[in-house]
Amino acid sequence: MEALGLTTTSYNYLHKYLDETLYTRSSTYGTSSPIEIFERVAADKRFDGLFEHRGGSNIETLFKHHEELILEHWNAWQISNPTKQFEDSQRAATALLAATQESGTNEFDFFFVHLLTTSHAVRILLPMIPVKYHTNVLRQWWLLTLAIYIAQLRPVIDQKMVLDYDLGGKDWSWIDKQAVEGKWSMDAHYVKGLRAMKEAAGTWEDKDMFYLKAGVKFGEGFAGWGGFGPLDAEESVGSSLKSRSDCIKSTSNLVTDA
């Protein structure tokens, strides 16, 4: 209900890319893999030096001054099988949170956890809306995901960080306990991240235990949120910073406006 309320009251510049067909065009390449696009974006030197620091304040600058760059990669995602590619997108969202962590830190990116939880929101919404809108909803989520990835300075996604993670005998019951009774159980974003991964694992066949390993890695390695730029760092995670608020409102708008 909160997301629907935001949709009716906060209609920002991002919607033109969804409402006007002229922004959907052929790209210089095409792929069905979100991870491949992330890899291409990370290697695209045209993004180098665009921002001095990471943070939500980069998003508006990205669209205002570098629109063609982001639209090139946005339009590269070819959706021919929405169900399979939504599965791929949920894995990619999990990898963004769990497989981009900087070495030697126990902080996880605050913006990336919202990409994961909005992917979970898409999973809830899709069965409730007509099939003809499914692809559009996926592309809406994908636009914001790419924008935030670029705004966060395109960290390399190393899936081996998750796939090689030692579970140490831990399972989903252990993760449930962390969410309910653990040190960080009062942090709503931490709990929502764990739940989103568990629900994804239950939705798709988690053969390589990617979601479980990501959940355990996040669950026991978490010691706070990072990913903020200088403006964000002026206040704590619990504060209502405008850049963070705008980011989250945009997320809610995109995934609820079919």
Look at the helices and sheets and give the structural class.
mainly alpha
* CA-based shape: globular
Strand order of the largest sheet: 1-2
Mean pLDDT: 89
Q: Tally of extended strands?
A: 2
Radius of gyration from the alpha-carbon trace, in angstroms: 17 Å
Along the chain, the helix and strand elements come as HHHHHHEHHHHHHEHH
Helix content: 55-70%
- Terminal CA distance: 15 Å
Q: Biggest sheet, in brief?
A: 2 strands, parallel
What percentage of amino acids are in beta strands?
under 5%
Low-confidence stretches: 235-252, 254-258
Number of helices: 14
Notes on the protein architecture:
- 58% of the residues lie in helices and 2% in strands.
- The chain has 258 residues and is mainly alpha-helical.
- Helix 4 crosses helix 8 (134-151) and helix 10 (172-181) runs parallel beside helix 12.
- The chain has 14 helices and two strands, in the order ααααααβααααααβαα.
- Strands 1-2 form a two-stranded parallel ribbon.
